[in-house]
Amino acid sequence: MESDAKERVGSVLNDKWTLERLLGVGGMAAVYAGRHRNGALAAIKVLHPGLARNKEVRERFQREGYAANKVAHPGIVKVLDDDVVTAGPDAGTAYLVMELLDGESLQDRVERGQPIGEREFLEIADGVLDALKVAHEGGVVHRDLKPENLFFARAEDGATRIKVLDFGLARLLQGQAITSHGLALGTPSFMSPEQAAGRIDEIDGRTDLFALAATGFRLRTGRRIHEAVNVVELVQKMSNLPATPIREVAPDVSEPYARIIDKALQFRREDRYENASEMQVDVRRALSELAPTARPPPVARPSPTVDVPLDVPPLEKPAPETPVEPTIELSESDIVRPPQFGLDESIRIPKRRSFLPWLLLLVVAAAGVKAWPFLRRMADDAMGSGEPGADTSAGSNAAADPEAGLRGSDAGSPKGRPILPHRPFPTKPGATGPSPTR
Protein backbone atom coordinates (compact mmCIF):
# COMPACT_ATOMS: atom_id res chain seq x y z
CA MET A 1 0.00 0.00 0.00
CA GLU A 2 2.74 2.45 0.89
CA SER A 3 4.54 1.96 -2.42
CA ASP A 4 1.31 2.59 -4.32
CA ALA A 5 0.65 5.65 -2.19
CA LYS A 6 4.09 7.07 -2.96
CA GLU A 7 3.55 6.59 -6.69
CA ARG A 8 0.45 8.75 -6.42
CA VAL A 9 2.51 11.80 -5.35
CA GLY A 10 2.40 14.45 -8.11
CA SER A 11 -0.94 13.33 -9.51
CA VAL A 12 -3.86 15.74 -9.81
CA LEU A 13 -7.34 14.81 -8.59
CA ASN A 14 -10.18 16.03 -10.77
CA ASP A 15 -8.00 18.83 -12.20
CA LYS A 16 -8.16 20.53 -8.79
CA TRP A 17 -5.87 19.05 -6.14
CA THR A 18 -2.18 18.30 -6.73
CA LEU A 19 -0.79 15.75 -4.26
CA GLU A 20 2.57 17.29 -3.27
CA ARG A 21 3.85 14.90 -0.59
CA LEU A 22 2.79 11.85 1.34
CA LEU A 23 2.05 12.49 5.01
CA GLY A 24 1.07 9.02 6.12
CA VAL A 25 -0.55 5.70 5.23
CA GLY A 26 -3.24 4.01 7.30
CA GLY A 27 -5.39 0.92 7.06
CA MET A 28 -8.09 2.63 5.01
CA ALA A 29 -6.42 5.57 3.31
CA ALA A 30 -3.29 7.58 2.54
CA VAL A 31 -3.00 11.24 3.54
CA TYR A 32 -1.21 13.83 1.39
CA ALA A 33 -0.36 17.49 1.60
CA GLY A 34 -2.26 18.86 -1.36
CA ARG A 35 -2.48 22.20 -3.14
CA HIS A 36 -5.61 23.48 -4.84
CA ARG A 37 -5.34 25.11 -8.24
CA ASN A 38 -6.14 28.42 -6.50
CA GLY A 39 -3.12 27.96 -4.20
CA ALA A 40 -4.93 26.83 -1.04
CA LEU A 41 -3.27 24.09 1.03
CA ALA A 42 -5.09 21.18 2.62
CA ALA A 43 -4.71 17.58 3.68
CA ILE A 44 -6.12 15.13 1.14
CA LYS A 45 -7.18 11.75 2.46
CA VAL A 46 -7.50 9.21 -0.37
CA LEU A 47 -9.23 5.88 0.21
CA HIS A 48 -7.16 2.90 -0.91
CA PRO A 49 -8.40 1.88 -4.39
CA GLY A 50 -8.85 -1.75 -3.33
CA LEU A 51 -11.25 -0.70 -0.58
CA ALA A 52 -13.12 1.73 -2.80
CA ARG A 53 -14.82 -1.23 -4.50
CA ASN A 54 -16.57 -2.08 -1.22
CA LYS A 55 -19.71 0.02 -1.00
CA GLU A 56 -19.98 -0.14 2.80
CA VAL A 57 -16.34 0.89 3.30
CA ARG A 58 -16.75 3.72 0.81
CA GLU A 59 -19.88 4.96 2.56
CA ARG A 60 -18.18 4.81 5.95
CA PHE A 61 -15.19 6.71 4.60
CA GLN A 62 -17.29 9.49 3.12
CA ARG A 63 -19.37 9.62 6.28
CA GLU A 64 -16.28 10.67 8.25
CA GLY A 65 -16.80 14.24 7.12
CA TYR A 66 -20.39 14.26 8.33
CA ALA A 67 -19.43 12.82 11.73
CA ALA A 68 -16.50 15.21 12.26
CA ASN A 69 -18.38 18.29 11.11
CA LYS A 70 -21.30 17.43 13.37
CA VAL A 71 -19.01 18.29 16.30
CA ALA A 72 -18.36 22.02 16.62
CA HIS A 73 -15.14 21.97 18.63
CA PRO A 74 -11.61 23.26 17.86
CA GLY A 75 -10.20 19.92 18.99
CA ILE A 76 -11.91 18.12 16.09
CA VAL A 77 -10.34 18.28 12.63
CA LYS A 78 -12.80 19.68 10.11
CA VAL A 79 -13.49 18.01 6.79
CA LEU A 80 -13.87 20.69 4.12
CA ASP A 81 -15.02 18.62 1.16
CA ASP A 82 -15.48 15.11 -0.20
CA ASP A 83 -15.42 13.90 -3.78
CA VAL A 84 -14.68 10.95 -6.06
CA VAL A 85 -11.80 10.67 -8.54
CA THR A 86 -13.26 10.81 -12.04
CA ALA A 87 -10.27 9.87 -14.22
CA GLY A 88 -6.91 8.13 -14.17
CA PRO A 89 -5.82 4.88 -12.48
CA ASP A 90 -7.68 5.80 -9.27
CA ALA A 91 -11.00 6.56 -10.97
CA GLY A 92 -13.90 5.78 -8.65
CA THR A 93 -11.82 6.29 -5.50
CA ALA A 94 -13.27 8.58 -2.82
CA TYR A 95 -11.21 11.30 -1.11
CA LEU A 96 -11.69 13.87 1.65
CA VAL A 97 -10.27 17.40 1.91
CA MET A 98 -9.34 18.40 5.48
CA GLU A 99 -7.53 21.22 7.21
CA LEU A 100 -3.76 20.76 7.01
CA LEU A 101 -2.15 20.54 10.44
CA ASP A 102 1.42 21.36 11.46
CA GLY A 103 2.75 19.13 14.19
CA GLU A 104 2.96 15.44 15.11
CA SER A 105 0.86 12.68 16.57
CA LEU A 106 1.29 11.22 20.04
CA GLN A 107 2.55 8.04 18.37
CA ASP A 108 5.18 10.03 16.45
CA ARG A 109 6.35 11.71 19.64
CA VAL A 110 6.74 8.43 21.47
CA GLU A 111 8.54 6.75 18.56
CA ARG A 112 11.11 9.54 18.32
CA GLY A 113 12.00 9.06 21.97
CA GLN A 114 10.02 11.86 23.64
CA PRO A 115 8.69 10.35 26.89
CA ILE A 116 5.22 11.17 28.20
CA GLY A 117 4.94 11.46 31.98
CA GLU A 118 1.87 10.99 34.14
CA ARG A 119 1.11 14.67 34.44
CA GLU A 120 1.55 15.34 30.74
CA PHE A 121 -0.73 12.49 29.77
CA LEU A 122 -3.43 13.73 32.15
CA GLU A 123 -3.18 17.16 30.54
CA ILE A 124 -3.53 15.51 27.12
CA ALA A 125 -6.51 13.54 28.42
CA ASP A 126 -8.10 16.75 29.69
CA GLY A 127 -7.97 18.24 26.18
CA VAL A 128 -9.22 15.04 24.53
CA LEU A 129 -12.10 14.76 27.00
CA ASP A 130 -13.05 18.34 26.25
CA ALA A 131 -13.54 17.36 22.60
CA LEU A 132 -15.16 14.00 23.38
CA LYS A 133 -17.65 15.69 25.68
CA VAL A 134 -18.99 17.76 22.78
CA ALA A 135 -18.86 14.79 20.37
CA HIS A 136 -20.79 12.47 22.69
CA GLU A 137 -23.39 15.12 23.44
CA GLY A 138 -23.87 15.41 19.67
CA GLY A 139 -24.40 11.65 19.37
CA VAL A 140 -20.98 10.84 17.86
CA VAL A 141 -18.71 8.09 19.24
CA HIS A 142 -15.18 7.96 17.78
CA ARG A 143 -14.51 4.20 18.37
CA ASP A 144 -10.84 4.27 17.33
CA LEU A 145 -8.99 6.48 19.79
CA LYS A 146 -5.29 5.62 19.96
CA PRO A 147 -1.92 7.45 19.94
CA GLU A 148 -1.93 7.81 16.13
CA ASN A 149 -5.24 9.70 16.28
CA LEU A 150 -4.21 12.22 18.94
CA PHE A 151 -2.34 15.07 17.25
CA PHE A 152 -0.28 17.94 18.68
CA ALA A 153 -1.19 20.77 16.29
CA ARG A 154 1.06 23.86 16.35
CA ALA A 155 -0.54 27.25 15.76
CA GLU A 156 1.21 30.23 14.17
CA ASP A 157 1.85 31.74 17.62
CA GLY A 158 3.67 28.56 18.70
CA ALA A 159 0.91 27.28 20.97
CA THR A 160 0.03 23.59 20.82
CA ARG A 161 -3.48 22.16 20.89
CA ILE A 162 -4.42 18.49 21.04
CA LYS A 163 -6.73 17.47 18.17
CA VAL A 164 -8.62 14.24 17.59
CA LEU A 165 -8.16 12.77 14.12
CA ASP A 166 -9.85 10.13 11.99
CA PHE A 167 -13.56 9.75 12.56
CA GLY A 168 -13.62 7.03 9.91
CA LEU A 169 -15.26 4.52 12.31
CA ALA A 170 -17.42 7.06 14.12
CA ARG A 171 -20.95 5.97 14.84
CA LEU A 172 -23.78 8.45 14.76
CA LEU A 173 -26.11 7.28 17.51
CA GLN A 174 -29.37 8.56 16.05
CA GLY A 175 -30.08 5.41 14.06
CA GLN A 176 -27.43 6.18 11.44
CA ALA A 177 -25.00 3.32 12.05
CA ILE A 178 -23.89 1.71 8.80
CA THR A 179 -21.75 -1.10 10.21
CA SER A 180 -22.97 -4.68 10.08
CA HIS A 181 -24.04 -6.51 13.22
CA GLY A 182 -21.30 -8.56 14.84
CA LEU A 183 -18.33 -6.61 13.49
CA ALA A 184 -15.51 -5.71 15.84
CA LEU A 185 -14.20 -2.42 14.47
CA GLY A 186 -11.20 -0.58 15.84
CA THR A 187 -7.68 -1.26 17.05
CA PRO A 188 -7.49 -4.40 19.26
CA SER A 189 -5.21 -3.04 22.02
CA PHE A 190 -7.58 -0.13 22.68
CA MET A 191 -10.95 -1.90 22.23
CA SER A 192 -13.45 -1.96 25.07
CA PRO A 193 -14.85 -5.43 25.93
CA GLU A 194 -18.19 -4.69 24.27
CA GLN A 195 -16.45 -3.40 21.15
CA ALA A 196 -14.11 -6.40 20.93
CA ALA A 197 -17.08 -8.75 21.32
CA GLY A 198 -18.88 -7.03 18.43
CA ARG A 199 -21.83 -5.93 20.59
CA ILE A 200 -22.37 -2.74 18.62
CA ASP A 201 -25.63 -1.89 20.38
CA GLU A 202 -23.69 -1.47 23.64
CA ILE A 203 -21.08 0.92 22.22
CA ASP A 204 -21.41 4.43 23.59
CA GLY A 205 -19.16 7.21 24.90
CA ARG A 206 -17.72 4.89 27.55
CA THR A 207 -16.01 2.97 24.75
CA ASP A 208 -13.97 6.08 23.91
CA LEU A 209 -13.15 6.59 27.61
CA PHE A 210 -11.84 3.01 27.75
CA ALA A 211 -9.61 3.62 24.71
CA LEU A 212 -8.23 6.83 26.22
CA ALA A 213 -7.38 5.00 29.46
CA ALA A 214 -5.83 2.13 27.47
CA THR A 215 -3.54 4.72 25.87
CA GLY A 216 -2.55 6.00 29.31
CA PHE A 217 -1.96 2.42 30.49
CA ARG A 218 0.36 1.72 27.58
CA LEU A 219 2.28 4.98 27.87
CA ARG A 220 2.91 4.42 31.58
CA THR A 221 3.67 0.68 31.63
CA GLY A 222 5.16 0.13 28.17
CA ARG A 223 2.83 -2.80 27.49
CA ARG A 224 -0.69 -3.55 26.30
CA ILE A 225 -3.57 -4.32 28.61
CA HIS A 226 -3.37 -7.92 27.38
CA GLU A 227 -0.60 -9.58 25.42
CA ALA A 228 -1.30 -12.16 22.70
CA VAL A 229 0.44 -13.94 19.85
CA ASN A 230 -2.05 -12.87 17.18
CA VAL A 231 -4.94 -10.50 16.54
CA VAL A 232 -7.70 -13.06 17.07
CA GLU A 233 -6.34 -14.10 20.46
CA LEU A 234 -5.92 -10.44 21.45
CA VAL A 235 -9.53 -9.65 20.53
CA GLN A 236 -10.65 -12.70 22.52
CA LYS A 237 -8.81 -11.48 25.59
CA MET A 238 -10.04 -7.91 25.26
CA SER A 239 -13.62 -9.16 25.06
CA ASN A 240 -13.41 -11.71 27.90
CA LEU A 241 -10.77 -10.66 30.44
CA PRO A 242 -10.76 -7.59 32.70
CA ALA A 243 -7.73 -5.29 32.65
CA THR A 244 -5.09 -5.86 35.30
CA PRO A 245 -4.91 -2.95 37.79
CA ILE A 246 -2.10 -0.72 36.59
CA ARG A 247 -0.20 -0.76 39.89
CA GLU A 248 0.11 -4.55 39.66
CA VAL A 249 2.03 -4.00 36.42
CA ALA A 250 3.95 -0.88 37.48
CA PRO A 251 3.95 -0.53 41.30
CA ASP A 252 5.46 2.97 41.20
CA VAL A 253 2.42 4.50 39.47
CA SER A 254 0.95 7.32 41.55
CA GLU A 255 -2.41 6.80 43.26
CA PRO A 256 -4.21 9.63 41.38
CA TYR A 257 -3.03 8.33 37.99
CA ALA A 258 -3.96 4.73 38.88
CA ARG A 259 -7.40 5.85 40.03
CA ILE A 260 -8.16 7.42 36.65
CA ILE A 261 -6.82 4.56 34.52
CA ASP A 262 -8.33 1.72 36.55
CA LYS A 263 -11.82 3.21 36.70
CA ALA A 264 -11.99 3.94 32.96
CA LEU A 265 -10.74 0.40 32.20
CA GLN A 266 -13.41 -1.42 34.21
CA PHE A 267 -14.68 -4.50 32.38
CA ARG A 268 -18.36 -3.63 32.85
CA ARG A 269 -19.17 -0.31 31.21
CA GLU A 270 -21.56 0.45 34.09
CA ASP A 271 -18.54 0.55 36.41
CA ARG A 272 -16.64 3.11 34.31
CA TYR A 273 -17.08 6.87 34.29
CA GLU A 274 -20.62 7.60 33.18
CA ASN A 275 -19.50 10.18 30.62
CA ALA A 276 -16.58 12.35 29.49
CA SER A 277 -17.56 15.18 31.82
CA GLU A 278 -17.34 12.94 34.89
CA MET A 279 -13.94 11.61 33.83
CA GLN A 280 -12.68 15.12 33.09
CA VAL A 281 -13.60 16.27 36.61
CA ASP A 282 -11.58 13.39 38.08
CA VAL A 283 -8.65 14.05 35.72
CA ARG A 284 -8.47 17.67 36.86
CA ARG A 285 -8.64 16.51 40.47
CA ALA A 286 -5.73 14.13 39.83
CA LEU A 287 -3.72 16.96 38.25
CA SER A 288 -4.20 19.04 41.40
CA GLU A 289 -3.04 16.10 43.53
CA LEU A 290 0.14 15.47 41.51
CA ALA A 291 3.11 17.63 42.44
CA PRO A 292 4.27 19.79 39.51
CA THR A 293 7.41 18.42 37.88
CA ALA A 294 10.11 20.01 35.81
CA ARG A 295 9.34 19.91 32.10
CA PRO A 296 11.86 19.70 29.27
CA PRO A 297 11.75 22.63 26.86
CA PRO A 298 9.86 21.89 23.62
CA VAL A 299 12.08 20.69 20.81
CA ALA A 300 11.36 20.51 17.10
CA ARG A 301 13.51 17.43 16.49
CA PRO A 302 14.58 14.50 18.66
CA SER A 303 17.83 14.93 20.55
CA PRO A 304 19.18 11.54 21.65
CA THR A 305 22.02 13.12 23.65
CA VAL A 306 19.71 15.11 25.95
CA ASP A 307 19.00 13.38 29.26
CA VAL A 308 15.79 14.90 30.63
CA PRO A 309 14.68 13.94 34.17
CA LEU A 310 11.07 12.77 34.25
CA ASP A 311 8.73 11.67 36.97
CA VAL A 312 7.98 8.29 35.31
CA PRO A 313 9.73 5.84 33.03
CA PRO A 314 9.09 6.39 29.32
CA LEU A 315 7.23 4.05 27.05
CA GLU A 316 9.59 1.60 25.44
CA LYS A 317 10.11 2.41 21.80
CA PRO A 318 8.61 -0.32 19.60
CA ALA A 319 11.07 -2.52 17.78
CA PRO A 320 11.64 -1.40 14.17
CA GLU A 321 10.20 -4.63 12.84
CA THR A 322 6.97 -4.12 14.82
CA PRO A 323 4.52 -2.08 12.70
CA VAL A 324 2.06 0.38 14.15
CA GLU A 325 -1.03 -1.53 15.17
CA PRO A 326 -3.64 -0.95 12.45
CA THR A 327 -7.36 -0.53 12.66
CA ILE A 328 -9.04 -3.84 11.87
CA GLU A 329 -12.42 -5.32 11.08
CA LEU A 330 -13.23 -8.78 12.41
CA SER A 331 -16.50 -10.63 12.00
CA GLU A 332 -17.89 -12.96 14.63
CA SER A 333 -16.98 -15.92 12.44
CA ASP A 334 -13.31 -14.92 12.81
CA ILE A 335 -13.50 -15.04 16.58
CA VAL A 336 -13.67 -18.50 18.20
CA ARG A 337 -16.10 -18.12 21.08
CA PRO A 338 -14.86 -19.59 24.41
CA PRO A 339 -16.94 -22.25 26.17
CA GLN A 340 -19.28 -21.05 28.92
CA PHE A 341 -17.33 -22.86 31.60
CA GLY A 342 -14.08 -21.02 30.94
CA LEU A 343 -11.86 -19.23 28.48
CA ASP A 344 -9.99 -21.24 25.89
CA GLU A 345 -7.41 -18.89 24.42
CA SER A 346 -6.22 -21.36 21.80
CA ILE A 347 -7.51 -21.27 18.26
CA ARG A 348 -9.48 -24.44 17.87
CA ILE A 349 -9.11 -26.33 14.61
CA PRO A 350 -11.70 -29.06 13.85
CA LYS A 351 -10.13 -32.50 13.87
CA ARG A 352 -10.40 -34.63 10.73
CA ARG A 353 -11.98 -37.96 11.60
CA SER A 354 -10.28 -41.02 10.02
CA PHE A 355 -12.37 -43.46 7.92
CA LEU A 356 -10.07 -46.43 8.77
CA PRO A 357 -12.03 -47.62 11.85
CA TRP A 358 -15.24 -47.72 9.79
CA LEU A 359 -13.49 -49.61 6.97
CA LEU A 360 -12.15 -52.18 9.45
CA LEU A 361 -15.62 -52.61 10.93
CA LEU A 362 -17.09 -53.26 7.46
CA VAL A 363 -14.40 -55.87 6.71
CA VAL A 364 -15.07 -57.70 9.99
CA ALA A 365 -18.84 -57.61 9.37
CA ALA A 366 -18.42 -59.01 5.84
CA ALA A 367 -16.19 -61.82 7.11
CA GLY A 368 -18.78 -62.67 9.76
CA VAL A 369 -21.57 -62.89 7.19
CA LYS A 370 -19.48 -65.13 4.96
CA ALA A 371 -18.50 -67.46 7.85
CA TRP A 372 -22.01 -67.72 9.32
CA PRO A 373 -23.11 -70.87 7.34
CA PHE A 374 -19.96 -72.71 8.42
CA LEU A 375 -20.45 -71.73 12.07
CA ARG A 376 -24.11 -72.72 11.93
CA ARG A 377 -23.15 -76.11 10.48
CA MET A 378 -20.64 -76.71 13.29
CA ALA A 379 -23.30 -75.87 15.88
CA ASP A 380 -25.71 -78.29 14.26
CA ASP A 381 -23.07 -81.01 14.18
CA ALA A 382 -22.36 -80.57 17.86
CA MET A 383 -26.04 -80.91 18.81
CA GLY A 384 -26.53 -83.84 16.44
CA SER A 385 -23.77 -85.97 17.94
CA GLY A 386 -26.20 -86.90 20.77
CA GLU A 387 -25.69 -87.67 24.45
CA PRO A 388 -25.54 -91.20 25.91
CA GLY A 389 -29.04 -92.55 26.28
CA ALA A 390 -30.67 -89.86 24.23
CA ASP A 391 -33.85 -90.73 22.33
CA THR A 392 -33.02 -90.23 18.68
CA SER A 393 -36.59 -90.78 17.65
CA ALA A 394 -37.38 -87.23 18.68
CA GLY A 395 -36.05 -86.01 15.37
CA SER A 396 -38.67 -87.91 13.37
CA ASN A 397 -41.42 -86.80 15.69
CA ALA A 398 -40.30 -83.22 15.31
CA ALA A 399 -40.33 -83.57 11.58
CA ALA A 400 -43.94 -84.72 11.70
CA ASP A 401 -44.98 -82.15 14.32
CA PRO A 402 -42.52 -79.25 14.79
CA GLU A 403 -44.05 -78.33 18.14
CA ALA A 404 -44.04 -81.87 19.55
CA GLY A 405 -40.48 -81.75 20.80
CA LEU A 406 -41.17 -78.49 22.65
CA ARG A 407 -44.46 -79.73 24.21
CA GLY A 408 -43.05 -82.97 25.57
CA SER A 409 -39.53 -81.92 26.37
CA ASP A 410 -39.87 -80.26 29.75
CA ALA A 411 -40.33 -83.55 31.67
CA GLY A 412 -37.30 -85.33 30.27
CA SER A 413 -34.83 -82.45 30.10
CA PRO A 414 -32.34 -81.85 32.87
CA LYS A 415 -33.43 -79.00 35.18
CA GLY A 416 -36.53 -78.48 33.07
CA ARG A 417 -34.64 -77.09 30.07
CA PRO A 418 -36.30 -77.87 26.71
CA ILE A 419 -34.48 -80.29 24.50
CA LEU A 420 -34.20 -78.96 20.98
CA PRO A 421 -35.27 -81.41 18.24
CA HIS A 422 -32.41 -83.25 16.59
CA ARG A 423 -31.39 -82.17 13.08
CA PRO A 424 -29.89 -85.08 11.09
CA PHE A 425 -26.67 -84.80 9.18
CA PRO A 426 -26.97 -83.53 5.67
CA THR A 427 -27.30 -86.37 3.21
CA LYS A 428 -25.58 -86.85 -0.08
CA PRO A 429 -27.59 -86.88 -3.27
CA GLY A 430 -29.45 -90.18 -3.60
CA ALA A 431 -29.41 -90.97 0.11
CA THR A 432 -32.64 -91.66 1.96
CA GLY A 433 -33.95 -89.64 4.83
CA PRO A 434 -35.33 -86.17 5.34
CA SER A 435 -33.58 -83.31 3.62
CA PRO A 436 -31.71 -80.82 5.85
CA THR A 437 -33.41 -77.59 6.74
CA ARG A 438 -31.42 -74.38 6.76
Question: Can you tell me the CATH architecture of the largest domain?
Answer: Orthogonal Bundle
Please report the number of helical segments: 14
What CATH first level of the largest domain would be assigned? Mainly Alpha
Classify the helix fraction into a percent range.
Answer: 25-40%
Sequence of strands across the biggest β-sheet:
1-2-3-4-6-5
The separation of the N and C termini measures 81 Å
Q: What string gives the helices and strands in order?
A: HEEEEHHEEEHHEEEEEHHHHHHEHHH
Q: Gyration radius, to the nearest Å? A: 39 Å
The oligomeric state is single chain
How many structural units, i.e. domains?
A: 2
Report the uncertain regions: 174-184, 296-323, 330-354, 386-438
Strand element count: 13
Question: Would you give an account of this structure?
Answer:
With 438 residues, the protein is of the alpha+beta class. It folds into 2 domains: 2-98, Phosphorylase Kinase, domain 1, CATH 3.30.200.20; 103-334, Transferase(Phosphotransferase) domain 1 (Transferase(Phosphotransferase), domain 1, Orthogonal Bundle). Helix content is 34%, strand content 14%. It is built from 14 helices and 13 strands. Strands 1-2-3-4-6-5 form a 6-stranded antiparallel β-sheet. The protein has a 3-stranded antiparallel β-sheet with strand order 7-9-10. Strands 8-11 form a two-stranded antiparallel sheet. Strand 3 and strand 4 (41-47) form a beta hairpin. Helix 5 (118-137) packs antiparallel against helix 7 (205-221), helix 5 (118-137) runs antiparallel to helix 11 (276-289) and helix 7 packs across helix 10. The longest helix has 29 residues, at 356-384. It is extended, with a radius of gyration of 39 Å. Residues 174-184, 296-323, 330-354 and 386-438 have low confidence and may be disordered.
